[in-house]
């Protein structure tokens, strides 16, 4: 089971993990394998979208909340480099991920198939991973 961060509820029973600057952060678990494009569409149907990190403060806040609520340290977010290898952008806005958010030695594209992005909660950073 993977946990997707979404800025609105998705199918299943979403859990509110926090409220910051007027935005509710919801999380829902999905069975594997799953499709991030489909997950993003589910979020859109509910008036939201897969999480796009706006700033470092938000990254730290949501990372802390995810770790407290789920006792896990890795979660998918709404970004990939499927269209242009090595250029990671968010599903919803198309904005690029800022390079200072990556964990050391990332993105690495290990195995030549790491096209999606997960958040590592401690310390808050990004890692490229396969899209399952």
From TrEMBL:
One of its GO terms (molecular function) is growth factor activity. It is found in: Secreted. One of its GO terms (cellular component) is extracellular space. It comes from the Eukaryota. Residues 19-132 form the C-type lectin domain. The keyword Cytoplasm does not apply. InterPro entries: C-type_lectin-like, C-type_lectin-like/link_sf, CLec_Tetranectin-domain, CTDL_fold. Pfam families: Lectin_C. SMART domains: CLECT. Keywords: Lectin, Secreted, Signal. PANTHER family: C-TYPE LECTIN DOMAIN FAMILY 11 MEMBER A, TETRANECTIN-RELATED. This is C-type lectin domain-containing protein. The lineage of its organism: Eukaryota, Metazoa, Spiralia, Lophotrochozoa, Mollusca.
């Amino acid at each position: 089971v993977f946990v997707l961060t979404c800025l609105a509820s998705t199918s299943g029973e979403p859990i509110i993990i926090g409220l910051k600057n007027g935005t509710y952060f919801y999380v829902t678990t999905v069975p594997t394998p799953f499709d991030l494009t489909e997950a993003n569409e589910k979020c859109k149907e509910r008036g939201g979208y897969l999480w796009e990190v706006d700033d470092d403060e938000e990254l730290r806040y949501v990372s802390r909340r995810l770790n407290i609520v789920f006792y896990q340290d890795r979660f998918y977010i709404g970004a990939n480099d499927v269209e242009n290898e090595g250029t990671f952008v968010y599903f919803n806005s198309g904005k690029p991920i800022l390079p200072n958010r990556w964990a050391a030695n990332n993105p690495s594209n290990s195995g030549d198939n790491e096209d999606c992005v997960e958040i590592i909660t401690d310390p808050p950073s990004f890692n490229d991973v396969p899209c399952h």
